[in-house]
Amino acid sequence: MASTIKKSTHIRYFLRCLKTHLPTAYTSNDSQRMTLAFFVLCGLDLLGAVDTNTTQSERTAYIDWIYRCQHPNGGFRGFTGADTGVKPTGGNEHWDPANIAATYFALASLAILGDDLGRVKRKECLSWLKRLQLNDGTFGEALGSEGEAHSGRDMRFCYCAAVIRWILAGGTGKEDEDIDVDGLVRFIEASQTYEGGFANGPFHEAHAGWTYCALGALSLLGRLHASPKSSRSAQVWPSKDSVEQMLRWLVSLQTSVLQEEDLSVSDAAKTVAQVDLGNGAHQTPIEATQVVSPEDPLTDGVGAEPLYDELRWAGLTGRCNKVADTCYTFWTGGSLTMLNSIHLLDQEALRHYLLEKTQHRIGGFGKLAGDVPGRKSTHLQ
């Protein structure tokens, strides 16, 4: 019988997260309530269950709570606990900062809930966003006591900045204060590695999560060649060679290694997708130590199990020599989708992995095969 997604079970899982107390393990995440709220609301939205499983008064209360987290000088806090209740001054505002990730999650959550963003301090937020940008084109997470940007050189913040700009300024940069788009694009381009993927910054290791953030930022800035909104007169990524290199790397991240104990020298090179990039060459998955001739049978005899039976389940990983992780179904799959190349993955094997190895009976998806469900892992599926 074909595996199916347990939609009603997942809806109940998200509703428990939304309307009841979270487990004690989440206590340390109290300051990240905006993030957790987004995971839950986004998951319900993807399942088409926001309007049908919450009342209008509940949605209004959620919207009001998000606006309570809005900082008077622009941006949003991660939770209301940081609000000191007094007017921000040079001496106390560093205890109550807006941060770029919470602002992204807040704006996206308001959109999911159907808010018109009429109460968002657009001008203040865009001015605050501009002050977060560093000289190398990247963005800090928050402003310090002297108005300086803290914690920069992070591709995730670059993506958050591009989303915030797109939501509040329509991606056009026509507002009085715009970010340095060319500087941001230069940083992103400099972060592509010899493998083909993007790293968190120049000279770092390629990673599927950073790659999604880089491509997403370029797309929202109108600088991704595959995007219909790209401007031919502006600096546009990528070149033909860099695309092919990236596609080969992204597809190589599909793996049948599902557990840490399965990750050995021979298994590390095991991948499952047959890749055709237009030059007639195909990559067929085999064991790293196995030599296969064209005459070799695929079974040991009549009625024997296929040598590649385990390839029924194949997830995605974020970088080489790692086990499959449900989150990278989104990061890697999303990157390939932006490059119009999702068909290069073995989608059937990926579907089996998600539905048979990580889908939990109580609802939600685990990070790894057999794990308990998590809010982030579930919403990304």
Shape: globular
Report on the biggest sheet: 2 strands, antiparallel
Strand element count: 4
Mean pLDDT: 80
Order of helices and strands: HHHHHHEEHHHHEEHHH
Radius of gyration: 23 Å
Structural class: mainly alpha
User: Unreliable stretches, pLDDT < 50, 5 or more residues?
Assistant: 265-277, 282-294, 296-307
Residues in helix, %? 25-40%
Going across the biggest sheet, name each strand in turn. Answer: 1-2
Structural features, described:
It is a single chain. This protein is 39% helix and 2% strand. By secondary structure, it is an all-alpha fold. The strands form two sheets. It has a two-stranded antiparallel ribbon with strand order 1-2. A two-stranded antiparallel sheet has the order 3-4. Helix 1 (7-19) runs antiparallel to helix 2 (33-46) and helix 7 packs parallel to helix 9. The protein is globular. Residues 265-277, 282-294 and 296-307 have low confidence and may be disordered.
Provide a concise account of the structure shown.
The protein has helices at 7-19, 33-46, 50-53, 56-68, 100-112, 122-132, 155-169, 181-190, 208-220, 240-252, 327-338, 347-358, 375-379, and strands at 142-143, 149-150, 254-255, 315-316. The chain has 381 residues and is mostly helical. It has a two-stranded antiparallel ribbon.
